[in-house]
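Reader question, answered in our methods column.
A reader sent in the components of a multi-part assembly and asked whether the whole thing could be modeled at once rather than chain by chain. We filled in our standard form and ran it. Here is what they sent:
COMPLEX SIZE: three components
ENTRIES:
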Amino acid sequence: MIYSLLILSPSVSGHGSRLGAEFARSAIARGHSIRRVFFLDAATTASSCNSIFAQDELNPAQAWEALHEEHAVELVICISSALKYGMLDDTEADRHGRPCASVNPAFTVSGLGQLVDACANSDRLMTFGG
Amino acid sequence: MVLHTLSAAPSGAAFNDCLKVLQAGDTLVLFGDGVYAALEGTAACDKLRATQAELFVLESDARLAGIAKTAANISWLDMDGLVALTERFPRQLAWY
Amino acid sequence: MPGAEKRSVLVVMRHSPYGSSLAKAAVDVALAAGAFDQPVDLLFTGDGVLQLFPDQDSHSLGKKNMGRQLASLPMYDIDRVYVDAEAASRYNLDTATSPVEAKLLDPREMRQLMVGYDHLLGL
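And here is the structure of the entire assembly that came back:
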């Protein structure tokens, strides 16, 4: 089956981001495909390429990057949320005159239409918040 | 049929909102802070069981929370089990 | 969206209008679905009914007025709006005065409503 995921919580707090990534990995292992993971609101901060973690701590956002690298899972952060949280790709940093991008290239910045498209073209939509 | 997932502690609004529409034939999976609703002998757990919905708790999160034993009628499942549930249920509603 | 299928979505609005950005996000999602011609209906439940208070005045705080946003929904052909009657009564909300026309549902009807959609989006 085709799944899409909507992630609402930041990877550094709460459970939603971790559970979403674990769910995606298990779904793929069971033979399903992930059309898209859409990050909305504070969840967009999972795309930060500037997060620093202590040596004995895991950066939970790495689980997403790994899914992208190993399974080409499309990771899309909502542009209007992303801009508010300071998550800019090269294009947006340029457009808004900011010195550098802050988004990990594994993530794509796009609009809510991508979530609508995910809903329209997936058999299952799984939301992870909190 | 609706697959409900609850990831907020039972003292919050999400728990009560979820409880309101939960009914026999539905399934509820507790994970994140939702696992505390699986604690034996608590009012929250009794309320969930009274709905006659099928109840599950995500094993990894129950262990993380230090819940070694959950109430009767609440089954443990792993992430693979959760995916299997979503194959059966056409729609999920997330309470968080 | 070229080649997009249609799947119906019920957005379940559960959060107060200004306490987080989730209510605003939910309306944005609904509007986006409307703009892409995807079938979307709304259910306000729990604290989500607080979005339906009339006379919201966000002007002095530089925030988007949620009431006004909701009032624009019918322009995007989003006109099936439902509200949790119990929650409305808990907050003494008269839905006749709400920015958008909404049908009152009891819990059993809410549950019945939910199974009529392909996807449920709890925001």
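What stands out: The mean pLDDT of chain A is 96. Residues 67 and 73 of chain A are 6 Å apart (CA to CA).
Send us your own complexes using the same form.
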